[in-house]
Write a structure and sequence with these properties.
Shape: globular
Radius of gyration: 19 Å
Number of strands: 4
Oligomer: single chain
Structural class: alpha+beta
Distance between the termini: 55 Å
Length: about 100
């Protein structure tokens, strides 16, 4: 009986961990992405270099990076190494890279 409880507890913890990891995933709706892309085309920015920073989803950008607002959208954008990145302004983490 103890073995069954331990296995059940381990399974529950595993599923809980997966749920917590999934909660960190940011989903930008297609409508929002379209709004962001159109706005970025209208308001192009100069590209900045961030030596030593590998640009990926989840990368936390330094606080010194200036983030620019997109009207009616929570996220901000900037251009790094000629790539437009969408950033969560609360965490400064990259949530999407627009190619």
């Amino acid at each position: 009986m103890r073995t069954h409880l331990t296995a059940a507890a381990a399974g529950f913890l595993l599923l809980a961990g997966i749920g917590a990891a999934a909660a960190d995933t940011v989903v930008i709706q297609p409508e929002q992405e379209t709004v962001i892309k159109e706005y970025v085309k209208k308001k192009p920015l100069a590209s900045v270099k961030l030596p030593g920073v590998e640009l990926n989803i989840g990368t936390a950008l330094p606080d010194t990076v200036e983030l620019h607002e997109v009207p009616n959208v929570k996220y901000r954008y900037t251009v790094i190494d000629n790539r437009t990145v969408i950033v969560d302004p609360d965490t400064h983490k990259v949530v999407k890279i627009i190619e």
